[in-house]
Structure formats: C-alpha cells, structure tokens
Amino acid sequence: MTHYYWTTYKSACNYQLLEQMNELQIRKATPEDLTSLSELFDGYRVYYGRPSDREAARQFLSARMAGEESVIMVAMHNQDLAGFVQFYPLFSSVRMQRLWLLNDLFVQERFRGRGISVALIESGKTLCRETLACGFMLETAKTNTIGNNLYRKAGLTLDTEHYVYQWETDRC
C-alpha cells in the first residue's frame, strides 16, 4: 500500500475545472442524504469487489452518523449526489494531536474528470483546520495510478519512510 499524508497549510491545487462547475456544492452529509449516499457507498464497495448490499450500507452509514464516528462530506452537483469522502478520527501519540484517516473517496463515473475528487480532498483539509488536527492520511494500492496521480495533484505527500502492517480476524 502507498501512504499519503497531508499536513495543514501545505497545499497547491488547481481549481480550474471546479470553477467551471458553479453547480457543485461540498457539504457535510446529513441523515436526509442516507438513501442516495447508501446507493453510492454500495457502488463504492462493489467497485472494490464486495457484494452489493444496500441495506447493510445504509445501516453502516447511519450508525457512523448517529455515533458521530466519522465525518462524511458529499459533493452535490445540482440535485445529484456526485461523490463522497469519509474521514475517521485518529490521534497521534508522538505528535500529541488529532489526525484524520481519509478512508473512503468515491465519485460517480459520470462525474469524474471534473475536479470533484480534488474538492472532496480539499474538504478534508478544511476539516483538519476546523478541528485543529495536524493533518490526514490515507492508503491506496501502489497500482492505483489514477488515485496516486490525484493525491499528488491535491498536494499530498507520499510517505516513503514507513511500512504498514496489519492483522485481521476471520470476520474480514
């Protein structure tokens, strides 16, 4: 996996495409978004090889919202949900500060190439500033060429100094 980090106030993004889309709005998801957000989240999971289960997706997102366990930002193009990003809170003991994990980022295929992913990433930078976090991190496959190019374009820095280890139960 490739790791990217963003530290507050280190960003250089090109909003050229976004400026052409006056109809784009990035905002925090609300319970009223659950139906359309669940469909998009289910599509995201299917994209990563999981079986479709819209009701489970709805329950999962509803629980995250109700428990304030994550922050979900949505990209609205006119009245359509074009994409979303989900952040989970973390803390760095070494830094003694909050940081966020950008865990999920997805834009509907028909809305890709318009700068929406960059705008959703930018919403994470705003989240970091507003919550006094030191930054956010994400991981992606080394083979994710589109994502890796996007993250660099959005001002994220590739972490070449650390390995990622994991352990999973039988439930994964």
Query: What's the CATH topology name?
Result: Aminopeptidase
What count of helical segments does DSSP give?
A: 5
Mean pLDDT: 88
Profile the largest sheet. 7 strands, mixed
For the largest sheet, list the strands in their spatial order. 2-3-4-5-6-1-7
Order of helices and strands: EHEHHEEEHEHE
The secondary-structure class comes to: alpha+beta
Beta fraction: 25-35%
Q: Return the CATH class.
A: Alpha Beta
Helix content: 25-40%
- Count structural domains: 1
The CATH superfamily bears the name Gcn5-related N-acetyltransferase (GNAT)
Structure commentary:
- Helix 2 (34-47) packs across helix 3 (54-66).
- It is built from 5 helices and 7 strands.
- The model is unreliable at 7-20 (pLDDT under 50).
- It is of the alpha+beta class.
- The protein has one domain (2-159): 3-Layer(aba) Sandwich (Aminopeptidase), CATH 3.40.630.
- The protein has a 7-stranded mixed beta sheet, with helices on both faces.
- The protein has helices at residues 16-19, 34-47, 54-66, 116-130, 145-153, and strands at 2-7, 24-28, 71-77, 80-92, 97-107, 135-140, 157-159.
- Strand 5 (97-107), helix 4 (116-130) and strand 6 form a beta-alpha-beta unit.
- The chain starts with a strand and ends in a 13-residue tail after the last strand.
